[in-house]
Design brief:
The complex is a heterodimer of chains A (550) and B (163). Chain A is built from 18 helices and 21 strands. Chain A is an alpha+beta fold and 550 residues long. Chain A folds into four domains: 104 residues, Sulfite Reductase Hemoprotein, domain 2 (Alpha-Beta Complex), CATH 3.90.480.20; 148 residues, Sulfite Reductase Hemoprotein, domain 1 (2-Layer Sandwich); 74 residues, Alpha-Beta Plaits, CATH 3.30.70.3340; 136 residues, Sulfite Reductase Hemoprotein, domain 1 (2-Layer Sandwich), CATH 3.30.413.10. Chain B is globular. The chains are: A alpha+beta (550), B alpha/beta (163).
Chain lengths: 550, 163
């Protein structure tokens, strides 16, 4: 956990006061809605279909237990008793009154959290691997760099009115759990000899014009991180399109000028500032590294007897098989908490569940919680011997659904139930799919599978990179869904391909089931995953069966 | 439109002139295209010279003219259009411009601190009500994370104890 120092706390206090003043001026009419909009957006406040929505930033998805309790309190006091975790490792409250917003924000600021730059055309929350600092795969904890970027981008005077929103993601592990190739900037930490640096990827993104990001630098020394980012942002701020909101992301600029020319412009700018005030020396890294408090891990052995005994229970074993990952410290494990119980909206947690998880984190996991971009929670540091008891208590909270990484672990946008942009509802479809695929044995047999649902072309549910992607479209005022297959969101990012005409709301669950059955019939062995089978077989066999009933 | 400098409303000595036509006596602001075309003649006048630069221009084009310029006016056609922030930093930090750097257009109090941090020191204020709030807006924050050319100490320098 990064612990705020006096400067971070002072800034946050000033920000809360600033927004309180802006809300006061809006309520008095001194500011009109058009003028207020970018100000509220920069504090994470949207005006949705039914109410104002507050999006709270969870920097690189890391929460301390007291922060999660503060989120629970906001959910209980100012919302309807729940919150919604997002694919950007943030949380949204959907039912907050404008007049109460500053109070909710002050309550959050007291524990160091806020809604700053969770929306608006500025640099958003930098996201990273929810397993950061815990996974044996990583070469270094990427959160240090995410925090360096957080500070540099906070209230950046030059880059607060960009052509469009700007998202940065960073990973340091072999498996990309941060989807860095579909961000405006993706950073992959790696080593060259003794040096640590970044592969820099720009211009990825989903939305109505999906692009896989392009590498413009194979190895950026870490001390140059901020000068290089500043060069990219300056080239974008000066030259990104502003004539059409749908063409204003950096991906369009990179596409239109070409990767080579874009990279040349960045290098030209970078050469001018590389040796300047943004250069990071070891002391600068140390000052931030020192504020990360890491758990004092106990010296334990892997595979303790208590765990071996508990694994004889098939229910526990099933949960353990998909929710528990390896940890870099012996005797420890990473636990993913599914927020996808059967029949419930994906990513939602009640205030009581948040309090419950906070307590479990204190008891079993050194007080730390992460938000994963799949809209689940993670306890990054759990003692293996505690896993059986943790599982029992999660189950009592309704949080032990054994479906992490499986077909019912669905990513869905808020859809037409909340969002003013959506064409179709996403949550009820996700609920129906989890009901159709409710049998734990069946979903374990289907194996690794990502279904992503977006309620409109803006692709907040990342349907392009779902193994099965579902995109809501409107046809004659009816809700229809397009289905894509074969998308992947990792370092080998691929965009899914459309299998054919959109299907109706009544048909769509059956169509998905027929696609899954096709896979089960045609796979070479249970070891061949769905995505591998789609790549081997192509779309045709799936297409044929999907539309067979018509 | 009231002109604010150092927190106070001041008279604007510059007359705005168009792309063509005779120049009046005294201080003038010309459009960028006219400066680029008639730079030498304009520099020879014995009065302060200003230039109004659209936010699509590459300000590096101004480099040879800067020694003769007392004023550069940058444009915010909409407060949401932030290109002039980059132009301002380049003028101050890269090209070393030390004259008046003025923000024109949709200039509102909630943006003024960002502008100051990027090097602006004069503001044509759209809403007269905003003027008394200016000083307050500039004092809203005391904590700054990024180094810019404005000389304000950054959090990093404060942490290191050498601010």
């Amino acid at each position: 956990m990064y612990v705020y120092d006096e400067f971070d706390r002072a800034f946050l206090g000033e920000r809360v006061d600033d927004f309180r003043d802006q809300v006061t001026r809006r309520l008095s009419g001194e500011l009109n809605e058009e003028e207020f909009k970018p100000l509220r957006l920069m504090n994470g406040v949207y005006l949705q279909l039914h109410a104002y929505m507050l999006r709270v930033c969870i920097p690189y998805g890391t929460l301390a237990s007291n922060q999660l309790r503060a989120l629970a309190s906001v959910a209980r006091r100012y919302d309807k008793g729940y919150g919604h975790f997002t694919t950007r490792q943030n949380i949204q409250f959907n039912w907050i009154k404008l007049s109460e917003l500053p109070d909710a924000m002050a309550e959050l600021a007291a524990v160091g959290i806020h809604g700053i730059q969770t929306s608006g055309n500025c640099i958003r929350n930098t996201t990273t691997d929810p397993w950061a600092g815990a996974t044996p795969e990583e070469i270094e904890d990427p959160r240090l760099y995410a925090e360096v970027i957080r500070q540099w981008s906070t209230n950046h005077p030059e880059f607060t009115f960009l052509p469009r929103k700007f998202k940065i993601a960073i990973t340091a592990a072999k498996h990309d759990r941060a989807a860095i190739r579909v961000h405006d900037i993706g950073l992959r930490l790696h080593r060259r000899g003794d040096e640590t640096g970044f592969e820099v990827i720009v211009g990825g993104g989903l939305g109505r014009t999906p692009f896989v990001g392009k590498t413009i630098r194979d190895f950026l020394p870490k001390e140059d991180l901020l000068s290089y980012l500043e060069a990219i942002l300056r080239v974008y701020n000066s030259g990104g399109r502003r004539d059409n909101i749908y063409k204003a992301r950096i991906k369009i600029q990179v596409h239109e000028v070409g990767t080579e020319e874009f990279s040349r412009r960045v290098d030209e700018e970078w050469a001018q500032i590389r040796e300047g005030a943004l250069r990071l020396d070891e002391a600068a890294f140390d000052a931030i590294r020192d504020r990360f408090v890491n758990p004092a891990f106990e010296a334990l052995d892997d595979a303790p007897a208590a765990l071996a005994e508990a694994l004889k229970n098939p229910d526990f074993a099933r949960w353990h098989a998909n929710s528990v990952g390896p940890h870099k410290v012996p005797g420890h494990a990473i636990v993913t908490i599914s927020l996808k119980p059967v029949g419930k909206p994906p990513g939602d947690a009640t205030a009581d569940q948040m309090d419950g998880v906070a307590d479990l984190a204190d008891t079993f996991a050194y007080g730390e919680i992460r938000v994963a971009h799949e809209q689940n929670l993670t306890l990054p540091h759990v003692r293996q011997k505690d896993l059986p008891e943790l599982w029992r208590r999660l189950d009592a909270l309704g949080l032990a659904t054994p479906n992490v990484g499986l077909i019912s672990d669905i990513i869905a946008c808020p859809g037409l139930d909340y969002c003013s942009l959506a064409n179709t509802r996403s949550i009820p479809l996700a609920q129906r799919l989890t009901e159709r695929f409710a049998d734990p044995e069946r979903i374990a047999d289907i194996g690794r599978m990502h279904i992503n649902i977006s309620g409109c072309i803006n692709a907040c549910g990342h349907h392009h990179v779902g193994h099965i992607g579902i995109l809501g479209v409107e046809k004659k005022e009816q809700e229809f869904y397009q289905v894509t297959l074969g998308g992947k969101g990792n370092l080998k990012t691929r965009l899914g391909e459309l299998i054919g005409p959109a299907v109706s709301e009544e048909e769509v669950v059956d169509v998905i089931e027929r696609i899954v059955d096709t896979y089960l019939d045609l796979r070479e062995s249970p070891k061949e995953t769905f995505i591998a089978a789609v790549q081997r077989l192509g779309l045709d066999p799936f297409k044929e069966r999907a539309y067979a009933a018509r | 439109m009231p002109l604010v400098k150092n927190g106070a409303v001041v008279p604007d000595p510059f007359t705005v002139v168009e792309a063509e036509g005779p120049l009046p006596e005294g201080a003038v602001t010309v459009p960028l295209a006219r400066l680029l075309a008639e730079g030498a003649d304009l520099a020879g006048r014995n009065s302060p010279l200003g230039v109004a630069v659209p936010n699509t221009a590459d300000v590096r084009e101004l480099a040879p003219h800067l020694p003769h310029l007392s004023l550069v006016v940058l444009d915010f056609p909409k407060f949401r259009d932030g290109r002039a922030y980059s132009q301002a930093r380049l003028l101050r930090e890269r090209l070393g411009f030390t004259g008046e750097l003025r923000a024109r257009g949709n200039v509102l109090r909630d943006q003024v601190l960002f502008m100051v941090r990027c090097g602006f020191d004069a503001f044509e204020i759209e809403k007269a009500d905003d003027i008394p709030a200016f000083a307050k807006a500039l004092a809203t924050y005391s904590i700054f994370y990024q180094p810019t050319g404005d000389g304000r100490p950054t959090v990093a320098s404060l942490r290191a104890g050498h601010a």
